[in-house]
Amino acid sequence: MTTQSKIPSLLIKTAEKLIRQSIPTISEIIVKTGIQNVGLPNVELPNTCLINDELQKILEFRNSIVNQLNAASKITETLSKSLDPLTTSVTTAKTSLNIAKTTFKAIGTAMIFANPVPGSVITGYTKVNNLLNNDIPLIITQASNKLTSVKEALDYNNSIISKLVNILKSIDQYLSGCNISLTDSPTINDYASKVNQQYSEIEDIPSNKEIYQGFTLEIVEEPYSPTVNRRKAVAKNNQGIILLSTPLTFSTDNQTLLTAIKLIIDSNNLKAN
How far lies 220's CA from each of 217, 230, 246, in Å? Predict the structure, then answer.
């Protein structure tokens, strides 16, 4: 096997390592702070701040994610330089971007359903451990099996990097709002920043309705209390009959819920037609 033929595998392994390293830390930050829709344009920051000692721990968590991201970015940049000019530019292939989005949203979905009630704590973090040891390897394997070219692997890796940059932006917003200085903290390197800027320009806005494998996917709401609703994704056939649905959750991220219902459809190889 030539050096260039190994590059897709090396890129996927870099992405897998980055996800494995960062997800436990991100999970703990979400649980402790109560940030909703982390990494998304509609991020919701809590109205209150943790005590200073806890804020310093969040800052340490944030810094560790930045260091992990920068290390993965350097590897990705080095691997991309060994490719020919047509594959080194970050011009995202739609297929690989969709795979990366599905991968990351699937992980996000698992995190949401592990901690479905706002402000609750994941008891013993056993569900996060299960996510790391079982769900993530399966999700990444399914994603990497769909990548058919070096460029798609590079786009996939870069999309993961971009999404982590967006998550860090949400965390930085929270810390800054709680008067925590980031002056002496590590910053996101140039490669990751450039990738994030380019990928953010092509990210489509999540929709609450979509056609997939013949199913009509929609987001529906059900009252939980007089002031709070829970939401789920449903899959309807051509007659408008609901055939599948995700568990109810407090998540307001449409794309996460739509990805969850797609995973149910794919895992059972279902088609509406």
Answer: 10, 9, 10
Q: Of 142, 167, 200, which one is at a domain's C-terminal end?
A: 200
The runs of H, that is alpha helices, within the chain are 7-33, 52-81, 85-88, 94-114, 126-130, 136-144, 150-177, 190-200, 254-267
What domain range is 14 assigned to? 4-200
pLDDT in tens, 206-264: 445 677 788 888 999 999 988 889 999 999 988 888 999 999 998 888 878 888 888 88
pTM: 0.62
What is the phi-psi region of residue 177: left when phi exceeds 0, alpha when psi lies from -120 to 50, beta otherwise? alpha
Do 238 and 175 share a domain, yes or no?
Answer: no
> pLDDT tens digits, residue range 143-153?
555 555 677 77
* 43 & 145 share domain: yes
C-alpha distances (whole Å) from 18 to each of 24, 42, 191 are: 11, 24, 15
Confidence of residue 34 (pLDDT cuts 50, 70, 90): confident
35 shares its domain with 86: yes
